[in-house]
Amino acid sequence: MKKNIRIVLVNTSHPGNIGAAARAMKNMCLERLYLVEPKGFPCAEATARASGADDVLANAVVCESLGQALDGCHFVVGTSARSRRISWPVADPRQTAARVMQEAQQGDVALVFGREHSGLTNEELEKCHFLVHIPTNPDYSSLNLAAAVQVLCYELMLFSPDENSQLEDEARDLASAEEMESFFEHLEQTLVELAFLDANHPRKLMRRLRRFFNRARPDKTEMNILRGVLSAAQGKKLYRTKS
Ligand code: SAH
């Protein structure tokens, strides 16, 4: 299951943090590191801080965008140094580990970490099913990036499924993160065409709809139905049958 878990670091500024994250991962039996536009990688400092976890660094996948790093993932968890982020569901590391291990039975899953100075953008957070916040001193809540990676990887290491709460989700062929993204684009476009959504005053409609559909976890067949409904609403189906 751990082979299905990706640790994604977005726009990391300090190569040392990349190395330290690789070390934290390997200590906890995780090996799939994805780096979205790292500033300065590969770098001797990263290798030094990896302290023997060179294989994790050597196999790290460098990506141009978060979307690319999430390609093929059906479940995505964001991390936040702030405990209260309006509009996003937030879990603690233990709950997160249980959910991530459960989802990893069905395919690739990602844990996404933000920039040292500014964390993750709203646009990036929108790609996440929920956020995890490591409980901290409320007046000093931001951990070093690699320390945050360590805590979450440790929880994944500790997780052992309780026999009574056997992970019961039958193997559903869930829509991938990429399929969910193009669905959300299609949904937004359709709502604008239907004049239900004012593109100039979108408010939080799309964010709320994202939360709703992410909670529903549609599988590929359900996703096809939803896409069909949108196309029908856009009049495409009508157009196609006519031509
Ligand atoms: N000033 C930034 C802090 C970023 S810390 C902000 O307010 O968002 C760099 C990264 O480390 C974060 O993006 C997150 O991935 C991780 N991190 C730091 N502290 C964390 C915490 N308490 N819980 C979860 N992740 C944390």
Mind explaining what this structure looks like?
The chain is an alpha/beta fold. The protein folds into 2 domains: 2-158, SPOUT methyltransferase, trefoil knot domain (Alpha/beta knot); 177-242, Helicase, Ruva Protein, domain 3 (Orthogonal Bundle). Helix content is 45%, strand content 13%. The protein contains 11 helices and 7 strands. The chain has a 7-stranded parallel sheet, sandwiched between helices. It starts with a strand and ends with a helix. The site of S-adenosyl-L-homocysteine has 20 residues, from helix 7.
Give a nutshell description of this structure.
With 243 residues, the protein is α/β, with parallel strands linked by helices.
Number of domains: 2
Distance between the termini: 48 Å
Bound molecules: S-adenosyl-L-homocysteine
- From the alpha carbons, calculate the radius of gyration and give it in angstroms: 19 Å
Q: Tell me the name of the CATH class of the largest domain.
A: Alpha Beta
Sheet with the most strands: spatial strand order? 3-2-1-6-4-7-5
Individual helix count: 11
Going by helix content, strand content and strand pairing, the class is alpha/beta
Q: How many β strands by DSSP? A: 7
Strand content: 5-15%
Give the low-confidence spans: 239-243
Task: Find the CATH superfamily of the largest domain.
Answer: SPOUT methyltransferase, trefoil knot domain
> H/E series, N to C?
EHEHHEHEEHEHEHHHHH
Under CATH, the topology of the largest domain is which? Alpha/beta knot
Mean pLDDT: 90
Question: Considering DSSP H and I runs of 4 or more, what fraction of the residues is helical?
Answer: 40-55%
Major β-sheet annotation: 7 strands, parallel
Shape: globular
Q: Provide the CATH architecture of the largest domain.
A: 3-Layer(aba) Sandwich
